[in-house]
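Hey team,

Sharing the Protoheme IX farnesyltransferase run so nobody has to redo it. Sequence (308 residues) first:
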Amino acid sequence: MSDVTAAAPLRQDLSEVSDWVTLLKPRVISLVVLTGVVGLLVAPGHLHPTLAIAAVLCIALGAGAAGAINMWYDRDIDAVMRRTERRPIPAGRIEPGAALAYGVGLALASVAIMGLATNWVAAGVLALSIGFYVFVYTMWLKRRTSQNIVIGGAAGAFPPVIGWAAVTGDVTLMPVLMFAIIFFWTPPHFWALSLWAHADYEKVGVPMLPVTHGARETRKQVLVYTIALVPLTLLPWVFGFAGWVYAAAALLLGAEFLRQSVAVYRDLQDAAGRSLSNDVPAKKAFRYSLLYLALLFIALAADKAVLG
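Structure output:
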């Protein structure tokens, strides 16, 4: 009995820690960190391993800080949407003011440490990415326009630029190309999600494309952006920043992404009046898009490791 009693506070402490971690949106951070690390690895020059680790941690903390502030601002609609109603703030496990202070504190710390550990160009880009996600996407675009994801996608495209700048202290064509790849990847990725989660967005009045223009137009846009994305991913090879290892991976991964997008475009089950289920092409495309971006950037790093 005493063991059970002693274990209860530990479980509560772990649950509280889990809630604070959840505020950082760890699943989003994982992809942010990966693209940031690749930007750091493919950049010319050398960064001491300790400073490189510090830079990666700052990218993760900055992304997490933006996520926490996003959850603070969106707590009203999160409480209504089925997909987000169990988040720590709407569920009442974390006070909104504490969440905001947590996010702002992490944001300031991440930028300051990045500047001191690497350079202030990287710190400036990190600050820009946090500010863009919080003020431009979360507070301005998300609830006002169906192009929220298109413009707001820039926020998630900064990490490889930050990684590159941490090593070089500048921003040149290659990090801009990596930024552009993520920028054009974001609409088909997120609109695939919004196709099967559109009821939540409609309920809270968030003007995602399926809500404002319908599922058919959204499926079309998923395909259009994917068609634009695939040739764009070949530009690092065209400009000589990457070799055949990356080019082959980009073509193979892109061909599958196109296949998935065509399947989304041809899907008519919503037009037939049936509810969207977990195994529809939209959800498959959303899941593949996560794998696609991760493998594409891993291929970029592998290309440099193999071919120099």
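The two ends are 62 Å apart (CA to CA).

Ping me if you want the raw files.
A.
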